Amino acid sequence: MALKKSELYSTIWKSCDELRGGMDASQYKDYVLILLFIKYVSDRYAGDSKALIVVPKGGSFADLVALQGKADIGDKINVIIAKLADANGLKGVIDVADFNDSDKLGKGKDMVDRLSNLVALFNNPNLDFRNNRAGGDDLLGDAYEYLMKNFATESGKSKGQFYTPAEVSRIMAKVIGVGNARRADQSIYDPTCGSGSLLLNAFDEARHLTRLSLSLYGQEMDNATAALAKMNMILHDAPEAEIWKDNTLSSPHWKGKNGSLLTHDFVVANPPFSTKAWSNGIDPLNDQYHRFEYGIPPEKNGDYAFLLHVLASLKPTGKGAIILPHGVLFRGGAEADIRTAILKQGYIKGIIGLPVNLFYGTSIPACIIVLDKEGSVGRKGVFLIDASKGFIKDGPKNRLRAQDIHKIVTTFNEGLEIDRYSRLVPLKEIEANDFNLNIPRYIDSSDPEDLQDIDAHLRGGIPNRDIDELSAYWDVFPGIRKALFKKGDRSGYSELKIPHTELKKTIFGNPEFSAFNESITQRFMEWSSLNKKKLKAIKVGTLPKALIDELGEDILATFRKAQLIDAYDVYQHLLNYWEAAMQDDVYQISQIGWQSTVDGGPNTDLLPREVVIHKFFKAEAEAIEGLEAERDEVSRKIEELCEENGGDEELLAEAATEKGTYTKVSVKARLAGIKKDRDAAEERKLLEALVELFEAETAAKKKVKEAQARLDEQVTKKYSQLNEASLKDLVVEEKWLATLGADVQTELDRLTQALTSRIKLLAERYQMPLPALEKELANLSATVEGHLMTMGFAW
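Structure (tokenized):
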């Protein structure tokens, strides 16, 4: 059976359960990732004399498996890891966790059981990494990212800095243009690389688009995190990446032949925010690397120190991106001087404002500053994006969706100016604002105020101004506007023609809405027709990630010109379904091809039974539903009879079990006990009726079970009869496209709900003007006064 991506994630995450309790996530991640690493390199490289990673005798995962249940398992695991580390120069990288630590892993049998269970989880036939890559799609690398994200989430604010969310990493890789690399000797550098996610996303972007494996350089101050980065490089099939452990600002490791900083084509960075000790070990006035020629950052805030290091590490044609807190855009003093100097040099190409609470080390808002030395000469402006509102909640953090990433990247790379979202701000305007780059100065992304109309509150009517603001709808549905509103009693105001309750019915029933609905359905059918052949052409070796990129671009292109519907919302439906189910299907096909049966049984992962039933056995399924309805009707009668006659003083009181329920056995027992009792004739009649119902229920259940068994047999047989063409038709058309079509329909429902809700709000807001309110108040006051007088109270 092919390895499912979702199954890989969940299986590996179960290994963490074995370690929780004795240590926190920042510690147990080392144990899990080391075992994952040993399993991976053993599967991939054992016995390969030409491999870059050597798996020595006594240093493989198979040697770990042999230790299960042995009293000295912890000590012997350390020995095996040491052999693998020595053979590959990985001392201090994969031997950072002590597998014989009784404080963390338990003593005696507890340690033996815990470690044995941990090894057993990885010794799973489904976790075979020898063929984990589907033609370059990195399942294992993705699993590593999944683990790192979860570790960062569990580690909390103080210990989650080692991980940059993959969504942000992908944006940075795309906006600096690593996909435009032309030579294999070009390089990517991250001076604060953490666990390496930024570096690797840039590396994967270049490899995905150009098939080039660019040189990777990283530096990380924390020992354990640097070790994670080195393992991460190997797990992502980038074993030649250079990772150095040291302080980048005080001791930059990567240098050119003359001792100056080694410069790179691309630089990415997510440094610690506003670090106070940045200048330890540095004399900024006499910096031998000439990083502070545009100014010296404040003594207790190192944000600009890292930005200046990135700038100094770029080639004259280099491009970079750095994540920094929003304060760097507007703070004064020394930072303002540096910002001004850099802007005047034209090095800042753009700034992307991100949502709050994206990062694991902090919840404050951050931005991506995009640097471009090549295009600096003659630069006339800075391209700004306010992407602060595009996200979803994901546990304790916010997360960028696929549609948010795509919108940011497309907008930035194509220089699209979108109202309330993006703008190319001229340098002259920035200079007029004292080189303050605070995004709200230039882009107003706030929601427009919902103004109240005092005259409408006083005299009634719905302001035409509010109705006109829905012009995007009326451009498509002019007839619906006429069907909903009529002219009011004075200029500038209208009234609803229909009751509030009729709004949705009126909209749905209008021919214009039906035509619009049909046009959206037709657009989806166009996309389906365009991609149906492509989907059926998936085969062993197909690149799943390349496929979803193509599908996504096609669906955006198809819906971009659609009125009212946001193409990115439709795109998100596709990506959601891909993440939930479709990617597992495609990965499976890319590994084993189109198979209707696997391991001797139906391939229900690829082709769910319900799809087969709906296509071939609809009548049989409907017959079972009929039998189930008959069974449920009998069960309902039993419930009603027992409910009506089952109280303490009722006829069935003595027929209940000790738990107060009724069964055929308990009812028959009571019936036998009163068989000759003349005074119990009424109870006996009731009990006999109940027994008859129980027997009818048993017979009905039997019919359902037998019919279901026959259907199951027919369905199982059908799987073995399906040829490849039939399987493709069912999966592509009845599963994938049918699901996506239903998802697109929800966008129409959302659109209608938004229009209906707004009109209803406006109608209710102004339905009772001041005179009517005063009259109602007077009536209510009179009613209350009358009641008080009736009760003898003067008023």
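The chain has a mean pLDDT of 90. The chain has 28 helices and 18 strands.
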